[in-house]
Amino acid sequence: MAAPNALFSRSAAARRSQYQLAGIAYATPAALVVGVFFLVPLGLVLWMSLHQWPLIGDPTFNAPANYTRIRDNALFIDAVWFTLKYTIVVTILLFAAAFGLAMLVQRPRPGVGFFRTAFFLPGAVGFATASLLFYGLLSRDLGPLNPILSALGLIGKPISWVSGSPNLALGSSIGLVIWRWAGFNMLILLTGLQAIPGEVYEAARVDGASRWQQFTRITLPLMRPTIALVLILMITGSLLAFDQFYILTNGGPDNSTTSVVMVIVREAFTRFDLGSAAAVSVLVLATLIVFNVVQLRVLRRGDRPAGD
Amino acid sequence: MRVQQLAARTGYYTTAAALAIVFLFPLVWAGWASVKPTPGSGQQVGYGFGNFIKLAHYGKGLPTYLLNSTLIAAIAVAGTLVVATLAGYAFARFRFPGRNLLFLAILAILMVPYPTLLIPLYVLLGWLGLQNTLVGLALVLTMFQLPFATFIMRNSFEAVPRELDEAAMVDGATTLAVLTRILLPAVRPGLITVGLFAFLASWSDFVVPLILISSPDKFPLPVAVVNMQQQVFGSIDYAALEAGVVVLAAPCMVLFLILQRGYVRGFMSGSLKG
Amino acid sequence: MSRRSSYVLARFWTVLIGSAALAMFGGLAACGKSANKDNKEAAKSADSDSGATITMWTRAATEAQSKMLVEAYNASHKNKVELTVVPTDNYAQKIATAAGGKALPDVFAADVIFAPNYTSKNLFLDITSRIDALPFKDSLAPSHIKLGTYQGKKYAVPHTIDLSVIFWNKDLYQKAGLDPEKGPTTLKEMAEHAKKIQALGGEIAGTTLGGNCGGCGVFTIWPSIWAAGGDVMNADGTVATLDSQQVKDTFAVWRQLYADGIAQPGSKDEQGPTWVGRFQSGNVGVGPMPSTTLAMMDKAGLKVGVIPIPGPDGGQSTFVGGDVLGIAATSKNADAAWNFLSWTLSDAAQVEVLAKNKDLIARTDLAENKYSAADPRVVTTLKVLAKGRTPYALNFNQTFNDPQGPWLATMRAALFGPDLNAGLTEGNAKVTASLAQK
Hints:
By secondary structure, chain A is mainly α. Helix content of chain A is 72%, strand content 1%.
């Protein structure tokens, strides 16, 4: 019995390794781009975090000073709490907004193309520019928002949306982020929604399933990979939020909206302490890697049949 | 039944329209503010396109910046599409050693604050001889797009039933043929999304080109616009800013209007039937 | 998988990771090597205008003046300067990146108050003997030269001058019954004028400030403290003196203006982008503004009067801001670069380019030239230049300009917080700590 079995397993094995080589071949361009343009610079960041790194001149090895000093950086500690709080709030609101919009525009109806475009259009503006645009829009004395809201009778006296209070500043930033990114995430969710074949819904309707049951038993489970992507993007993006605070609120009022990346940028380009900035970045990266590995495991559990 | 339908439809359109107004308002305001009279701007008296004319003549002139932006975007979009599609195919259909590690490495790009990477990237481009070149910049922008693009393509490929692949391979097709003839048409919405987002990101990005490019004649449009709007003491020429917003957003809007039909067709085509 | 293909695989990954690692360490070795700069003096070459290309960076805020000088130089010399304008907010980032990549331009401008920081980090080339060889070396704007000096060596020359002065809107003065040709000579008098203008009602405000902008506060509030004979910190910028009497008196005036609603309420949150626009809109009566915005105000159709910034009870001073220009430590074109630098300080450049365009010039010996006499407001501004100061501190940016720095918090506590004295005393300690931070 050995001979036929051996033949059979050899060709199967050969096919399998050929298959593997094909996979590697397809993955190589990405591996090259990631290796050269990301891993190498990342290695340099790691290296810098272990040194006192002057702008011009020789670096001096000083590990682990850059890391231990983080503990004493009060601005950083406050920024961590703020960034966590901000991430939770924004992710919930932005996800709800994007999903709601996606459900709204997924069926072809007259005018749906216009609505889709309207919701997505803010994504056509660079985020830094969008932040500055909002600063002008929300300006207490020079922007149109206060006059319009007054005319509509919604507010009594002009409100300083961007710096009136920590909550207003946070609210304005969240408003900016939702305006700018809801359409973008809506589109990603749309690709997921539209990948679900219509017959699946048909079959469920025939079996008497209600709209809600269709949503929870068909839409959500089949959307899992897309939802995973959107959540990873939102959460990671929020933890690394920068432009909206740097430009719209300046981290204020009174440092109440200072995020973690703002502290990193301050270390690097205001204090010119590149080693310290690198150390904080490495710490943030390590945290995010752990967090995302866990998140991916949870979201992909029992998901893909083969190939995982 | 008819009344119910009418009420539902009215509700739908009212909600959608209200939301559309909220989303469009800042852009409409920017458009209006770019042509209205503003003291101290390019358009002092009366309505007109003074701010746009000022923008067109600024620095090296609009055509130069537009050309740079277009080149950068073209290379970045092409690069992203090719690399991410091949990688998405690999992750979705193949098992190979290092697969999970590579995927994590790609995702890790999202997890590093980009200001931190800029100095090492600048040094790296110097080593590669790509410092201050549009190609080097486009490759870096491609790298930043990889996590999102690869994830989308992987999801898109995974959503196509394997039976299609296997049927073709039984007939003797190579993996490449399966990719080009069977899978690519099926993942069109994903391709459109990836291409569109790669275009948007590279067209409107401002910090990465600013840091990696130093010759004034190689700057893309966003850098020129930011320069134009900044004045003494951090004060901003808002009229110039708004003109910049209009000029930069217009091509994106046109592109999206053209491409978004692909979504509808993708939905309607039912290519996943059977 | 077969043993053969697993070898292939192992080889593949090893080559990939190995070459990445090699590239990384090889490059790090190169990166870590010292710049090997010889910061010593290079002999002045007789023929330094030989058709070289000189790269120059400037901030967007300084674009107008830099561009004028570059164009005039290029038109009259064989050397050509290639000017790159960089957005102001990202300028430090670009300089730092270029420095880290050993790719600074030949020449770059810098905000004068950051000059101590840059010189202490070896970004500029030592040009002491070159400056000392200039015939007019003693009439170069002293505060700029002082800030460009580090440990006895000179690294930068003045490039542009921007002073803080009081602007007043003559039309609003007229409407409020004030003499439109007479600006306030004390800060308390300015408060009185502002009060009358505030009474005009509607959108009109008496005065305005950059209430959430540290750099604006430095520029507009400190001169009043100096005019009263006080200071915000010691001479080498290591210890703050914000709890001194003159500081308290100055802040007391501004605090009252806000308390009475005479200072534009929205300006409490002004972060900088719309600070100048507030006065430019024609709705503000009187207040401190940058002298370089005078032309912009004229163009907007306003009739503006100019007077130096006074202290609470008199005196005059100004914040001498602007840019310095220096040769990068890594430049390979030092002689050609100096040819350009020294030309920008020559009579031709200072009078025929800058003064002709109503800009302030860096040479006190040329102050009274045919162009400056034309506008009496420019004469006023020039006269106060001699009474002005540019404060010196190594950690200026992270302490005073940075929104996350301690100055902004102190300023806001003094202006809007519950207790003026407590706010200043507490803030003073934090500012001192930041000035001393290594």
